[in-house]
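Q: What structure does this chain adopt?
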Amino acid sequence: MGASRADGESVRTTRLFLVNLPFVATAMLATLALTVYDRSSVLSSPYVVGIATLAVAVALTLVVPWHRLPGRAPMLVAVVDLVAVALFVAADTPLSLLAVFPVLWLAQRHGTAGVVTGVVGAFAVTWIPTALADGVATSSQAARVALVPVVLGAVALSVGAIQRRSDARNLLLRRQGVQLRRAAQELGAERRLLDAVVGTTGVGIVLLDAGGTVVLANRLAQQATDGAVRAGVRPAELPRVRSTTLDGVPHEHDIVSRALAGEEVRGEVGWWQLPGGRFALRASAIRLEGAATGDAGQLVLVTLEDLTDQVLALELKEDFVAAASHELRTPLTSIVGHLELAADDPSASRTVARHLDVATRNADRLLDLVDGLLTAAATRGAALELERSDVDLSAVVDDAVTAIAPLARSAGLDLVWSPPARGAGVRGDRLRLRQVVDNLLSNAVKYSDGSGTVEVRLDHDGEAGLVVLRVRDEGVGIAATDAERVFTRFYRTASARQGTRHGTGLGLHVVREIVHAHGGTVELASELGAGTTVEVRLPAGARP
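A:
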């Protein structure tokens, strides 16, 4: 600590000596020149005293402990220099301009006080020696008295103004520097906090620039890729990733390339084969508007939520349901058959017949539920197997309408069936197609409010080569937020869950899977409180 303070004192003393050195050196050179051309002036008493005064000034810069004195104390050295110049002028030498050195020093280093001292000193250097001289002033002395102090005063004022502006600018820069350092510290703290949050979050995060280079990858993203994805990795170095839907259908393009192309991907769930293993992920990708790094352009944020444990648990549950349903189907079929035989027995009383009818209806409902579960299980991860043949879809719909008509009448509904004039041939699986029609009609009746109409139409679209089945009801309808998800396995709308209508959420899912297996499409249009229309479009087959 003591050594550091001593070093600081030495630096300040040396600096003061160096500041004064140009004045001293110039005065000595001028003295040497005068010794050659005007020795009498150099040997005069005022000049000798001036040299002594100059030596005093040099001694002051080297001996006095300026670091212990007030900040204005070094002005004394400049004043001593001005006294030396005044003595040179009193010796009638043309050295009055030497005063420019202390005047500049005063104006530059000591603010307003230095400017005032410099101006006063400039006038004193020329006026006082002239006033004290004997005899009449020569023309050169008069010019010096009139011009030199004015020039030196103007120099002092100009330098003082420039220095004030410089000091103000330096002060502003220092304040800005303090603010920048504080902002950098705050930014560093926020960056460390952000890194901690991103690093500990349960979601994999990858940030890419517009060219596909990785800008940031958190811990989970690095673990899932065995460290292959990390900051600075270029697109060519990224691992080749295979991705499929949960049902095993390959994605045409990975989400990163789609996001770089400007597509927004939200919550796409599928299986990902990554260097770190096979993961079920919910992936999202979005371009960050207004975010850029240098010339990299917009950034792309990719988030990967690990759903592997949940998906495996769901698959295990569905496997159990499928196995249980398969085991239930055979005894249920037997129960339904024997119930129908018992109901046809003429010896059964009316009371027994009523009980048998209730049991038969509920057994049929349970058998439909089991069939739906088996169909849903059959469509998970593989294409649905069909037993294709030439089928008259009009006859299939007619049978389904006839079967559900008593239920519709008991619910107070008008069931309107409009078959085509010449039938509607398709190439497909008759039992599966009947399942489609039964599910659509069952939903239309179930979700009507005890009045209104259920309309069933079957038409030909000759130009497209399609058979079009429409089922329209005037029931409770479906909210827009639910309409996109009603084809999802086991999904039921909020109104259906809160009401008294029973269901599994498999009906429309089974419809979609069977229709897609036949190469067709299914669309739903609905308005809450106004009813629903479902349209199935199937490739037309041979005319029946």
